[in-house]
């Protein structure tokens, strides 16, 4: 269900690269998003989900060390607070097979790195309104 005010969405960034995370966080906050949270690995996502009142969007790096995004998405989808959240795979691996695997794993969107500063905030708003991205 689309949010009345996308800026009030609860967004979780799961990204191990500090540069990628810091750029994305700064872009989102500058665009007016108020509830942006970060975790550097998949094992810390579920406790954060439990602590938040709700989860609207998760941007999940599929190339995380240890427990990669393909493993983490199952745990996220099993959590009642995140079951209906829009989950976007983020990766520099843009091969067709990776996109298929992401779709099969249950991701709602696929965003390639490097993140495009001129597009990402509009993509976030669109994802919060139910639009899927697969490029």
- CATH topology description: Rossmann fold
Strand content: 15-25%
User: What is the H/E order?
Assistant: EHEHEHEHEH
CATH homologous superfamily designation: Response regulator
SS field, number of helical segments? 5
Question: Can you name the CATH architecture?
Answer: 3-Layer(aba) Sandwich
Main β-sheet description: 5 strands, parallel
- Kindly report how far apart the N and C termini lie: 23 Å
Strand order of the largest sheet: 2-1-3-4-5
Helix content: 25-40%
- Give the CATH level 1 class: Alpha Beta
Radius of gyration: 13 Å
The structural domain count equals 1
Shape: globular
Number of strands: 5
Protein model, in words:
- The structure is a single chain.
- The protein has 135 residues and is of the alpha/beta class.
- It has a single domain (7-128), classed as 3-Layer(aba) Sandwich (Rossmann fold).
- It is 36% helix and 19% strand.
- The chain has helices at 18-30, 45-51, 69-78, 96-105, 120-128; strands at 10-14, 35-39, 57-61, 86-91, 109-112.
- A five-stranded parallel beta sheet has the order 2-1-3-4-5, sandwiched between helices.
- Helix 3 (69-78) links the parallel strand 3 (57-61) and strand 4.
- The protein starts with 9 loop residues before the first strand and ends in a 7-residue tail after the last helix.
